[in-house]
Amino acid sequence: MTKNIQVENEATLSNKRIALLGGSSGIGLAVAQQVVKQGAHAIIASSNAERVQKAVASVGGKAEGHTLDLYDEASIQCFFGKLGAFDHLVYTAGDSLQLQELDAMDLKKAREGFELRFWSALAVVKYAISNIRQGGSIILTTGIAGTRPLKAWTVAAAGCGALVSLTRALAVELAPIRVNAVSPGVVRTNLWQNMQDGDREAMYEQVGKSLLVGRVGEAHEIARAYLFLMQEGYSTGQVVVVDGGGLLV
Question: Cβ neighbours of residue 164 under 8 Å, at least 6 residues apart?
Fold first, then answer.
């Protein structure tokens, strides 16, 4: 009976501290908004100070913001050295997608994208693990391109695949800390901000028509998968796909 009560108590996010790396926009911001509504304390960290400030103001409730250069390992180490104990780590940081076919690919930019999505995520986990309280978890972010890549998605697909493998390996190494990932399909976020407005909307419409649900995803819908993984307490090494049926079409 005692164990059951303990599990039920851990399922609530009330008064939990949630560290959200890349939490100033898109899916990360949506996660921050939803955990605060459940009584959690959101710790939002991102590279753009103005965007962090706006994000903290937008979530209301218990939230704090930090400017953090996720390309700089020393800055990451310093950040977690000062942060103190917390319960869940969410990593959603990612730059705008640079989709190019191989013969036109800028390899320097390709490396930079991989740096933020994979190596920075690994650095964050390395320096965060000693701060995570018992019963806590880590949630990374990948994407369905790792399973179903399209033309010109070579680097993006490779990064997604690497994050899936990283999630599983970390789940084994860091147990009993739970490590999972969320794999979204196409979602309306600033991930696509490098596209012209008209081109972006046309892409959303075209992709949406091809999906089983008839539309692309919204950030607040994907965010619920992160909350599920924080609260349910039993999954580890898993990837939750939220893609509107994208893997089936």
Answer: 142, 146, 181, 183, 239
